[in-house]
Amino acid sequence: LATSHNQVMVATEHYESILRALENLLVDPHQLDLSLAIIEKMRGHFFSFADWERLYIYLQKALDQVALQGDELHKAYLLDLIGHIFYVQGNWLEAIDHFKQAVSLFQKHQRLEPYAKTLSQLGQIISKLGKINEGLDLCQQALQVAQQINSEKTIAQIHWSLADIYLQIRQWEDALASAQ
Questions:
Q1: Per residue of the chain (180 residues), what is the pLDDT tens digit?
Q2: CB-count burial class (<10 Å; 0-12, 13-18, 19+) for 110
Q3: Of 94, 111, 140, 166, which has the maximum CB count within 10 A?
């Protein structure tokens, strides 16, 4: 997968085989680095297949292993991924819990780009629970961080979160301004 010129085709054609390999690798703690590399390479594919239950099991196994090793940074990335699974499934309270843990670890390790991205996701979900001002505040904090590190992609993602919140409260002009 890592050396292929067409990773999308390889990942799609060999999805089941890759998952079986990942499952076998996650049994052996000595293979954790390879397991994490596969998870990172396959991240987008996992979400496009919407294979939530199986993905959750694999991510939880990896999370348990990184926690045992005290690897807080990989723990943060895995918590973020699991938070996304809960988000797309509509389990917002679990998503919030996982995103909060990830945000805390990203901040602790000064990983500002994933910190800002996850913070804006957290704001977006919190707003869906009716806490609009808190959601907007979190997104504004995330936006400040993303602007400090000059990450255009992260800034765009945060604006999308802001637009979603503004649409939710029917502030059409603010939504349009954020989306642009």
A1: 455 555 556 656 778 888 888 888 888 888 888 888 888 887 777 777 777 888 898 899 999 999 998 999 999 999 999 999 999 999 999 999 999 999 999 999 999 999 999 999 999 999 999 999 999 999 999 999 999 999 999 999 998 988 888 888 787 887 787 777
A2: exposed
A3: 166
Q: Are 152 and 137 in contact (CB under 8 A)?
A: no
Please report where in the chains the tokens 């895995």 appear, as a residue.
78
Distance CA 23, CA 165 (A): 38
Cβ-based neighbours of 17, under 8 Å, separated by 6 or more: none
Q: Look up residue 180 and give its amino acid.
A: Q
CA distance 118 to 113: 9
Q: Which ranges of 51-111 would DSSP assign to H, the alpha helix?
A: 52-69, 72-88, 92-108
Q: What's the 3-state SS for 7-25?
A: HHHHHHHCHHHHHHHHHHH
DSSP string, 114-129: HHHHHHHHHHHHHHHT
Q: What does the chain come to in residues?
A: 180
